[in-house]
Each structure stands twice: as structure tokens, then as C-alpha cells.
Amino acid sequence: MKIYFTFEPRPDLREPLVEEFPNIDFVFHRKLKEDELSGVDVLVTYGEDLNEKRIELAKNLKWIFVVSAGVEKMPHQAIHDRGILVSNVRGIHKKPMAESILAHILAIKRVLPFIYENQQKGEWNKDTRPTELNGSTALILGPGAIGEEIGRLLQAFEVYTIGCNRSGDDVPYMNETYQIKDIMSVLPRAEIVISILPSTPETKHLLTYEHFKQMRRDTIFLNFGRGDLVSTDVLIKTLEEQLILHAVLDVFEEEPLPSSSKLWELDNITISPHFSSHSSRYLERSFEIFKPSLRKWLNGDENLENKMDILRGY
């Protein structure tokens, strides 16, 4: 049996894996090599290096383990047609992403950019108005594993949390939960709006200019899900008209964000280069999911953790 990694894990992760599964032929490369695919049974990948041709070349492929939560760049139909099992590392991002989101919110509330700027200029300047996170209301779009962790941290600051998901079913660490279709009615209640939504046909351009008009003028909007939740033109118009206080974006319709983008010119936005989930423990947590899943799969059990419906995208 051959398991092909299209990246090279650190030795402290790779060597114990090989020792634990001595009968498996592990191959580790810095990037995918098409001539290696013909005999591969399991592919471990970040998902961005797959296309229809490569799925066709991997004639023995039975399982793709995606070391990422998003699979939007993978050839969904080709994988589905072959009946290839797909699972991912959903949930491992929750700690670093929740910390990133909380850090951005606190930075804006407690005017850290203002403090840093004046330090650089050597100015003793108190001409600003810090606000408190305590007592705020936060609306979380897509309160899954990451959203729950954000809710847990926010509630520690006595923030009232409202979740929006497809079902409207109750979610841990949400004081209230609504269906996504009811989002217009709850937007005016929140000073903080956080999206962790994946990219699906239902979520593409889900937020429109009318949604931003429903938000409070003191709203902080954070998109840490996928960039196609809202069109770039709508974001620019919203921020130019100052319909909200500030936007924090970790994801964009086009990545990397072009240097010509008008978003760079706006002063009520924080641009993060899609790395809020990055952490020195990222692959460590990924292997904590992969190894138990591999043991189950070798025993003929395909009910793996984070098994995905590839056509749905989650």
C-alpha cells in the first residue's frame, strides 16, 4: 500500500508515523509529482494541487486526506464519480483562528493601531476613544467548531452571542441561534459580525450591500471563512460610505490580494493575508486526526472523522 504526501512534514511528525505503520510505503514530496500517482492508494494533500487529470492518473486512489478545512479548489465531480473517500482536518483551526479573531476585535476596541502608530512617531497622544468588548453582542455566521470556540471566548468577556446556520438548531456557546435566511432580522442587533462560512453555492455573495445597510454604524465586520461571501465591489462601497466602523478580512475573492486593489487604500479595514489559522501546531493537530483515521481505514472502517460530502463541499 502506498500513501503519498504532497508536502514534507517535520521529521518529528514523519518518523513516528513511518515507525507506527511499517508495512506502508510512505512517499513524501515537497509538491505533487504526477508520475508518482499511478500506484497511490491514499493521498495526503492541502487540496490545492489536485485537478481532473491528476485524479484520472491516480487509478488506485481510494482516500484523500485533506490537511485543510476548505476543499473548494478540488475537482469535486471527478472525485465523486470515482467514489473516492474524502476527509479533512475540520476543527483543528479553531484555537489559532479564534485567538486571531479575538486579537483583532480587542485591537480595534482598545485602539492598539493608534497606540502603535503614535509610538512609531514618538508622540504622547490620548486623542482617541477606546471602547469595551464587555457587554457587546456578536453575530457569528457559521458557528461550527471554529464558531463555537469564538463563542466560548467571547462569552468569557460577557459578550452576548447569536449564531446563524442552515438549520437554526441550538449551538454550544450561542445565546440564540437562527437560520441563515433570517440574517436580515438579527444584523441590527450586533456590534460584531463574524463569518466563518465555507464557500458553497449557497454562500457565494450571500452578504449584499443591503445587508451592510442593516448593520449598525459601529459594527466591526470580520470575514475569516471564504472571500466569496461578499463581492469586493460591495465591500469597497460599504467602507467608502462608512456604513460600518471597520472590516477585518483574512480572505478575499482574489488571493493574493492584488496590489492595485482599492481595499489597500482604505483606512477602515485590516487586511490579513489568509493566515489566521497558521500555527506551529497545525500539522501536529492534523496528524492527531490522520493517524487514528488511518488505523480505522486499514481495518476496513470508512466512517472516518470529518468524512466529507465532496459535492456539498463540507
From TrEMBL:
One Pfam family per UniProt: 2-Hacid_dh
Keywords: NAD, Oxidoreductase
Span of domain D-isomer specific 2-hydroxyacid dehydrogenase catalytic: 19-300
Record has Oxidoreductase as a keyword: yes
GO molecular function annotations of the record: NAD binding; oxidoreductase activity, acting on the CH-OH group of donors, NAD or NADP as acceptor
Domain of life: Bacteria
Domain D-isomer specific 2-hydroxyacid dehydrogenase NAD-binding positions: 102-275
Keyword Oxidoreductase part of the UniProt annotation: yes
SUPFAM superfamilies in alphabetical order: Formate/glycerate dehydrogenase catalytic domain-like, NAD(P)-binding Rossmann-fold domains
InterPro entries in the cross-refs: D-isomer_2_OHA_DH_cat_dom, D-isomer_DH_NAD-bd, NAD(P)-bd_dom_sf
Family listed: Belongs to the D-isomer specific 2-hydroxyacid dehydrogenase family.
Protein name, per record: 3-phosphoglycerate dehydrogenase
Gene source species: Ureibacillus massiliensis 4400831 = CIP 108448 = CCUG 49529
